[in-house]
Specification:
Largest sheet: 3 strands, antiparallel
Mean pLDDT: 96
Shape: globular
Order of helices and strands: HHHHHEEHEHHH
Strand order of the largest sheet: 2-1-3
Radius of gyration: 17 Å
Helix content: 40-55%
Length: 209
Amino acid sequence: NHMTYKLPELGYSYTALEPYIDARTMEIHLTKHHATYINNLNNAVAGLKMDLPECPKKLLTMLDELPEAVRTAVRNNGGGVANHNMYWKVMAPDGANSPQGALAAAIDKDLGGFEAFRDAFTKAALGRFGSGWAWLYVKPDGKLAVGSTANQDSPVMGAKYAGIEGKGVLLIDVWEHAYYLNYQNRRADYVSAFMNVVNWTKVGEYYDK
């Protein structure tokens, strides 16, 4: 019985995040880009004689256990699957519009407050050269941090692969396909728009976990 990874449901309509993220971008991003990562991941692991976890994020923690021949394909495409799965969840038309509870307290304590967090997160997103992601993540020591990764890397891969290590609670896609139709080269406008659709309810759940 082989594990097959599947494209998730958005949980809201393509138009739900307008005007911040346009419907056309949402549709192409999910049904073309994300779907391609799913297909490529399934193809990469198809011949493996090992039990794979259902959760693609868990798969990313096992890169060193995979045969070298498929490791890069799983890193790139498994990363693409896991990161996008989470990206759709941390945006919503109706999530809390600022951090609450334990997450809010941790942002105050570890990052110097919400404004300081927002500046750091924006800087990480704008400072990532080329394609990648910016993250709010929990380090192995339990403290919150802001950072970025290249391509489809994720902090769960560990520092050896991603340069940062921990568990993501919020991420933003800064590949051009995430914003080019609406914002062209204006990444800063997209990042600032994204901050209006962050589902802080969900981010708080990830943090509590």
